[in-house]
Structures are given as structure tokens and as C-alpha cells.
């Protein structure tokens, strides 16, 4: 196991993959996860090809979350709607009080408020930071 990273990123479509690689290129070790594991493999391979960047891929949500230093910060870039709720549910099971999900999707503000409230009830932080398209 590598040393814990300071940040994680879940969702490795075009924006997520490129953001993760950019963070790693700047010298910040990052853990990455995607529901579709082939995207994890693709991202890890790109990190190797682009200079053995400090990017670490995880195929299961538990090992992904556990790879991040506490308090954990996870950037999430997944498709708006049900995939966001499913990703939160999948990751939050392994998170601890004080950990944070930063949602990079751009979705209706009431969904962001609902998710922030649900996370707060678990002692988790949720920040909506719309940098990606949404519905």
C-alpha cells in the first residue's frame, strides 16, 4: 500500500480523468476510483505514460476511501441525477465524521441542498462546486 494521498477523485469520464491527471502532474498524489473499472485502468496507464505521475487507482470503493488521509476530501465528477446519489451512498459507507465530498457536477441547487443535509446528518461535509455540466 502506498502512503495515503491528500485527495481522492471519483468519476473518471473526460473531465474527472483530466482533472486527476492535472492534479498529479502538479505533484499532488491522488487516489482515483470509478464504478467502471476499465476507466481506472485507463487513467493509471495515462499517468504512467505521462511521466509516472503520483496517481493511484482503486477498483473498489472501500480501498479507495481508505487510501486518503483523514479528514478525507473526495472530489466527485459523475453524471447528474441518480448517479450522484448512488456514488454518495457507495462512498459514504466508508467515510468518517469530518470527511468531505466536493461535488463538481452542476445540478439543480435543491438537489445540492438535499444532499448536504443528508451528509450533515452522517457527520459528513458536502460542497457543491459546479465545474462540470449537468441536468
Automatic annotation (TrEMBL):
<dbReference type="Pfam" id="PF03446">
    <property type="entry name" value="NAD_binding_2"/>
</dbReference>
<dbReference type="GO" id="GO:0050661">
    <property type="term" value="F:NADP binding"/>
</dbReference>
<dbReference type="InterPro" id="IPR006183">
    <property type="entry name" value="Pgluconate_DH"/>
</dbReference>
<dbReference type="InterPro" id="IPR006115">
    <property type="entry name" value="6PGDH_NADP-bd"/>
</dbReference>
<protein>
    <submittedName>
        <fullName>Cytosolic 6-phosphogluconate dehydrogenase</fullName>
    </submittedName>
</protein>
<dbReference type="GO" id="GO:0004616">
    <property type="term" value="F:phosphogluconate dehydrogenase (decarboxylating) activity"/>
</dbReference>
<feature type="domain" description="6-phosphogluconate dehydrogenase NADP-binding">
    <location>
        <begin position="6"/>
        <end position="135"/>
    </location>
</feature>
<dbReference type="InterPro" id="IPR036291">
    <property type="entry name" value="NAD(P)-bd_dom_sf"/>
</dbReference>
